[in-house]
Each structure stands twice: as C-alpha cells, then as structure tokens.
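Journal club prep — side note

Before the paper discussion, L.F. wants everyone to see what a predicted structure for a comparable chain looks like in token form. Sequence:
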Amino acid sequence: MATTVEIDAAAGTLEGRSPADVLAWAAGRFAPRITFATAFGAEGCVLVDLIARHHLPIDVFTLDTGLLFPETYALWRRLEERYGLTIRAVHPELSVEGQAGVYGAVLWERAPDRCCEIRKVAPLRRALSGFDAWITSIRRDQTSDRSVARVAEWDLRFGLGKVNPLAGWTSEDVERYVRVHRVPVNPLHARGYPSIGCMPCTTAVAPGEGPRAGRWRGRGKTECGLHARLPLAAHGLVLGTPEEASAS
C-alpha cells in the first residue's frame, strides 16, 4: 500500500504528463492490486483504449446498477469484443426488484442519494476492498467536486490510492482522442446526452445547459457520491431504514 507522501510526490511528478504515462506509472506501482472503474462515458472508453493499447495489467470493472440504458449495455459488449478484455460486472446486493420490496418502488425519485448509496457507492466500496489503488476517468472541469482532483491522490472515502489520468483534459481533448483512434462510444452522446448514468435519473440536455444538467434533473445533485470530496456523513446522508425511505 502506498503512503500519502508517496502519492503526493507522484501527483507533482505526473502533473502535465500524458494519460498513457500516468497509467503506465500506476500499473508499474500497483499491479496487480489496481483496478479501473468505468461507467462507459467517453472518458472511460478512452482509458479502456489506452489500457488495451499498451497491454497494461489493470483490472477493469463497471457498476451494473441494473438500471443502465440498453445502449450502455451494448457498448459494454462492443468494448470487450473490440479490445479483447473482460470488463467485470459489480452488482448491488439488492436487485432493482429487491430494492423496491425493501424500500418501496422508484426509490430514485423519492431519495436519490439513498438509491445511489445502495446501487453505486456501497458496491464500489466492496469492489475496491481488495485493491491498493483505483483509476477513474474524472476531469477537473466536470463539477466543482472534481475541480481540485489531482492526477494521483489519496481517496479518503475508500481508503486507497486514486489515479485520475484525465484530470487535466478537457472535453475537446477527449473528443479528439476518440476521433483519432476511432474509440467506440455511447451513441446517446450524439443524441444530447453528454453525461450518462442510470436511465431513470438521466435526461438529454438542452443547448446552453451544462454537460451534467441532465443528471438528477431538478434536484440540485450532480454527483452520485463516488467522487464527492467529503464523507457521505458530512453531507448528512444516512442510509436509513426501509420505513424512512418509504416515507420520503
């Protein structure tokens, strides 16, 4: 396990380096105890391409909430076929139907933070428990929580190293890489969905809106909790009982 001092030093050294260089450092330092969690956004597809292109020994998985778009599931299969790698599925403990039985139907409408905790944050915490570092595809210009992300940092929420190879990239950088290398991406991007999550909580954005305006529309929420800078308790989020969820 790396120390915070080591990761801080690496962050300074790696700042401004290419994503390929950052990934090579991460694989060299942490493999085989390093993993990449992709949600199949364009940024995630870029990193899958780089991992496969450079034959890096990095585990890859996705959080299958059971609520992804059909286009996302199709892209998942296409990436595996294109690059000859396996993208593992990590599932919540409760199926969508099981969650409805315990907490009531459409929890994402009544308590979206709680739904994200059950279907994304808790599964990610379990998935990362056997690793020393994880890789994300976040960029600093995406949200205020992500604006201070370093190329390498210590993840206080999950207790391991966190590597953000695309932290300094812009959406134009991503689009250019996708175009030049013909990287498969979600067709929903071309239909007005710059940021894609679960079907019930994702809508297309209108001209002039921010790229994440379609996520949890109307709720003042832009993060599912995976990349928030503070512990969930600091935001006042408590998973709560099924009875409390039903009353929400």
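L.F.'s comment for the group: The radius of gyration is 18 Å. Keep this in mind when we get to the figures.
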